[in-house]
Amino acid sequence: MTEHDAAGHAEHGHDHPYDHDHDHPHAHDHGQGYDHEHPHPHPHPHDHGHSHPHGSVKGFLYDLFVPHTHDAADSIDDAMEASAAGIRAVKISMIVLLATTILQFALVLVTGSVALLADTIHNFADALTAVPLWIAFALGRRAATRRYTYGYGRAEDLAGMFIVIVVALSAVVAGWEAVSRFVHPRAIENPWLLVLAGLIGFAGNELVAIYRIRVGRKVGSAALVADGVHARLDGFTSLSVVLGAVGVLLGFPLADPIIGLLIAVSIMLLLWGTVKSIGARLMDAVEPDLVDRATHVLEHVPGVERVQAIRLRWSGHRLTGSAELAVSAHHLDEATRIAATASARARAALRTVDEFTVTPVPAAIPEHHHHDH
Angle, nearest 10°, between helix axes 222-249 and 79-111? Predict the structure, then answer.
């Protein structure tokens, strides 16, 4: 029965399907549910809405650069613990990237390589991006207020916007230095050291990438995972410095500024993925797999006839959700019990959910409520 039909019955003086003069009950899970055994088997398969290539080079690259943020079985479902883990991750990664930057800058002074300078500037910018993420995770731990009723989780999205600006500026600076080197050529000294510098940049970024992605998966932070993927891509960018060094050793000095310019361009191209990710979060986009998972769980709650609507939204690295369920209940207390069970099971399935509200509506009007007009 639709809400319009229900309203029509109310206008004609019929009793509410739940035999009460109340609006539809809402159920919020507070850690307790009414666990029932499901009364029927579920042989039908459920598609998660997307597939991932496996067993090929494409599959390897997909898993390498597009990691999930919600698949880990050992995910951290406590909001405070997740925020603490996020802060620890950004602090450690910032220290590693700053150490990498210092080592590379020392080699810039020795070699005079503009390609290495571009990579060093970018790594320094990446280290700075840890600061807004740090602040965002700290703000996310604050309690909701009357003004910010959903809390401060969206600070992560603001941090993401700041990261985009900083990285874009680093690309501009790197590109400017590369073009300047074309206009004012300068000999590269100790080109063999560029090989060492490139390997240092790759190692530092890859360590940070592994750590950020692992923690980001556990806490459900898309910003942290995206930053980890960004670091991984930056590691391969650092390897391009090695190509510049090889070019110089082979008697092609312009290889260095060419590589520097390519690094600047690649930064801008890779930044587009981050822009899309942050833009999607600002538009309340969620992974379809999360919606499929929640729908699957709700459909299999005893008493639920169908899922009429479901909504999920990210607030930083935490989820908030709601659903409208058509239930086969004739009384308010029965509908409330079904809603509480559904809310509890949804939270169990989506462990990063802070709140999941369920609104039960009658699946059909009981037979004794039907009358001829």
Answer: 10
CA distance 29 to 292: 20
What 3-state class would DSSP assign to 45?
A: coil
Q: Output phi, psi for 102, to 5 deg.
A: -65, -45
* In contact, 53 and 60? CB cutoff 8 Å: no
CB 82 within 8 A of CB 313: no
d(CA 306, CA 324): 9
Put simply, whether the predicted model's pTM sits higher than 0.90 gets the answer no
* Burial (CB count <10 Å: 0-12, 13-18, 19+), residue 194: buried
> 112, 189 in Cβ contact below 8 A?
yes
Q: With contact defined as beta carbons under 8 Å apart, do 138 and 83 qualify?
A: yes
Nearest to 246 by CA among 238, 237, 255: 255
**Rg of the chain on CA atoms, in Å:** 27
CA 108 to CA 120: how far, in whole Å? Answer: 8
- The Cα–Cα gap between 315 and 354 comes to 10
- For 171-208, write each residue's pLDDT tens digit: 888 788 788 878 877 777 777 888 888 889 899 999 99
Q: What is the pLDDT of residues 50-83, one digit of tens each?
A: 444 444 544 444 444 444 444 433 445 456 777 7
DSSP letter (8 states) at residue 250? T
Do residues 221 and 83 make contact, with C-beta atoms less than 8 angstroms apart? no
Show the 3-state SS of 275-301: HHHHHHHHCCCCCHHHHHHHHHHHHCC
Nearest to 98 by CA among 131, 142, 65, 66: 131
| Interstrand relation of 304-315 and 27-28 (parallel, antiparallel or unpaired) | unpaired
